[in-house]
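User: Please write out a complete single-protein record containing the residue sequence and its fold in token form, without commentary.

AI:
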Amino acid sequence: MKNEPIYIIGGGPAGVAAAVYLKRFSHDVQVIEPNPMLGGQVMIPHIIENYLGFPTGINGFEFASILNQHVTDLQIPIVHQKVTEIKKIDDHVFLIHLDNDETLTGKYVLCALGTKNRPLDIPGEKEWTGKGVSTCGTCDGPLFKNKTIAVVGGGDTALTETLFLSTYAQTIHLFHRRDSFRGFDSLVKKIQSIPSITIHYSSIPVEIHGNNTVTAMTYQNIETHQIFKLPVNGVFVFAGYIPDTTICNTLVDVDEKGYIIVNAQNETKTQGFYAIGDISSKSLRQIVTAMNDGAVAANHIHHDILNSLV
């Protein structure tokens, strides 16, 4: 089907699903992804246990490699640039500005930017990032073999990464601001069964200390208000995620948490502009729901184009 390119901004599972569906519908589609490899945050976990078709789980990097191969096999072009701004200049044309000063134009744009790690915003976090503070267990876990580390977070990602880190670290202190976990019960039971993991409920980090590298973390029990200083060699932060809609904030409405509001077809308030995956407002953010978003949006665009030709 001959038409102008449909642009997908972001190469995570949502973006890849949309690209594959649109390509199979015979549309000209391009993925804009600054990183050399597609996959987004799916590359980070050492194992993905809840994606259908892999009953024993699959390594995140391996899963990302499969996504890359699928896109490569379909010969879908990838623009390795960062988008700096998106504007709609009339009822039919979007302008996509890239950081190399190039401008792309298209009638349909899908925003699949996902989310970024939520920082702790405490003293020492920025200073010691890369020197003991990390947001990637798979990347940095081997550096802390037989050492003592702190893990901050209580969601599925934090629990999964803690399990992985337990294969390297001698001792792990897991800090969760609530008095119980809300993650998958199977993960919680595994965490609780490992003697080397100490869980600090109702506790939050206050400051990270270091001398060339991380040496300690101060934390507070929010129920008793007591302050403690714990010697650690590293701090892994999995405190959730936040959306970044800076490049498209004039085109969308967002909910109270900053996620883009979409309709059942994942279209925003601006006709032709879609938000798919974790950046959209919804109750569940998983690989399977991200891919569903991409497929639904792609199908809607396809039929919109067909109807315009009638």
Notes: The first strand starts at residue 6 and ends at 9. The helical segments are 13-24, 60-73, 137-140, 156-165, 185-192, 287-309. Residues 287-309 form the longest helix (23 residues).
